[in-house]
Design brief:
This protein is of the alpha/beta class and about 400 residues long. It has 14 helices and 13 strands. It has one domain: TIM Barrel (Alpha-Beta Barrel), CATH 3.20.20. The chain is about 35% helix and about 15% strand. It has a 13-stranded mixed sheet. About 45% of the residues are buried. The structure holds S-adenosylmethionine and iron/sulfur cluster. Iron/sulfur cluster (SF4) binds next to loops.
Length: about 400
């Protein structure tokens, strides 16, 4: 049975290891939110300068107390996965949430509509592995129906992050449903190393899926004036770099971008519960960039996008580009525009924050869209200015990555 209280709670793993966080009943939570909103409005009336700090949409539930507007939503569709990556999945596996407590397709759709109405323009489905969900194409089709309206600006991009294992078979169907952006994870160009890093076989399948996706993206001709246009616009390859395991392959990955119109993004290894993070396995992005410069002296930064998470670079003569996700050594919290919904329906305002609120419970208690918006707004308001530093993060409790959705 789904819980009937709104869990302004910590993650499952924390609940089991520490004293349980008391669950605040939804109605009590909503009262607190309304009171806080009234007080905030009074403060704004007294000090109009507060309004100009909160741009571009101060009244949106997606604007936090530091003025950051969150237009990018990541929704995890499952905790299941067909790989067991060493940096993501604890060796002993994760305790899966019972199916009945995960968001249904209808609940995912309702939440997405609510967020799009509030101003979200980008959605990315992740997991676990989103392609293990049979209804993924239907979920993408629904997201596509929100492009260019009917609410606000509507969605501008519909993406997935996938390990690529079953992608080859499903790619055309997903693009036909409205998929525009795809991130495929591949950490090594060596099939034996792949088996070590993912604890499963399948390197060639993933490798071939990357080429197939790149070819599809190459064929599509985006028309910015048509918000409903289908076609794959962007292919990225995510590569988590770990010292002594795959760091010596960085240059080989850069070489991939010579002929492929993709962005290879090197991701700093991040600590999550059960992934045995240690600074001896950590490679800061500056070290990777120094190495790349030795072979590609023309490597130079692109102009950063406003809410960049990746620092992108170009190299003369390469069709593709490279990027770095430096969440650990050089965080991008000041411009963070992302919110996450876990597969069990918790809103997580920061990847590294343990505080969560259950939108699933609120929906199953029959709360209206207006009440859900209040809960979302209150959670966003509580978002901290930045996450703790690298070494504190490694000590801090958080869910395993596989149950957050990267
Ligand atoms: N299964 C899909 C995949 O692997 O692409 C989507 C989910 S996965 C959790 C999303 C992304 O998070 C992947 O690119 C993965 O490499 C990245 N990731 C997982 N654990 C990580 C860690 N400890 N540090 C950095 N990136 C991590
Ligand atoms: Fe699965 Fe993705 Fe995590 Fe690897 S990174 S175990 S593919 S969810």
């Amino acid at each position: 049975m789904p819980s009937t209280s709104c869990s302004v709670a910590r993650s499952k793993s924390q609940q089991s290891s520490a004293a349980k966080t008391p669950l605040v009943p939804v109605d009590e939570f909503l009262d607190q939110v309304r009171r806080a909103k009234d007080e905030e409005q009074q403060r704004r009336k007294k000090d109009p300068s507060l309004i100009s700090q909160l741009s571009p949409s101060p009244s949106s539930p997606l604007t936090d107390s530091f003025g950051r507007f969150h237009n990018y939503l990541r929704i995890s569709l499952t905790e299941r996965c067909n790989l067991r990556c060493v940096y993501c999945m604890p060796e002993e596996g994760v305790e899966l949430t019972p199916e009945s407590q995960l968001l249904s397709r209808g609940e995912v759709a309702r939440l997405l509509e609510l967020f799009v109405r509030a101003g979200v323009t980008k959605v990315r489905y992740t997991g676990g592995e989103p392609t293990v969900r049979r209804d993924l194409a239907d979920i993408i089709r629904h997201a596509h129906s929100l492009r260019g309206g009917p609410f606000g600006r509507g969605l501008e991009s519909v993406g997935i992050t996938t390990n690529g294992i079953v992608l080859g078979r499903r790619l055309e169907g997903l693009v036909d449903a409205g998929l525009t952006h795809i991130n495929i994870s591949l950490d090594t160009l060596d099939s034996n190393k792949f088996t070590i890093m993912t604890r499963r076989n399948g390197w060639k399948t993933v490798h071939d899926a990357i080429y197939k996706a790149a070819a599809l993206a190459d064929q599509s001709k985006p028309d910015p004036s048509d918000p409903h246009q289908k076609g794959l616009r962007n292919v990225k390859v995510n590569c988590v770099v770990m010292k002594g395991l795959n760091d010596y392959e960085v240059l080989d990955f850069v070489e991939l971008t010579r002929d492929l119109p993709i962005i290879v993004r090197f991701i700093e290894y991040m600590p999550f519960d059960g992934n045995r993070w240690s600074d001896s396995k950590f490679v800061p992005y500056a070290e990777m960039l120094d190495l790349i410069r030795t072979r590609y002296p023309s490597v130079r930064p692109e102009v950063l996008e406003p809410n960049h998470t990746s620092k992108n670079y170009m190299i003369d003569g390469h069709r593709g580009r490279i990027g770095f996700i430096s969440s650990m050594s050089d965080h991008f919290c000041a411009t963070c525009n992302r919110l996450r919904i876990t597969a069990d329906g918790n809103l997580k305002v920061c990847l590294f924050g343990a505080q969560e609120v259950s939108l699933r419970d609120a929906m199953r208690m029959g709360k209206t869209d207006e009440e859900l918006s209040l809960i979302i707004g209150a959670a966003v308001m509580k978002k901290k200015a930045r996450h703790a530093g690298m070494f504190q993060l490694s000590q801090q409790k958080n869910r395993p990555m596989i149950t957050i959705g990267g």
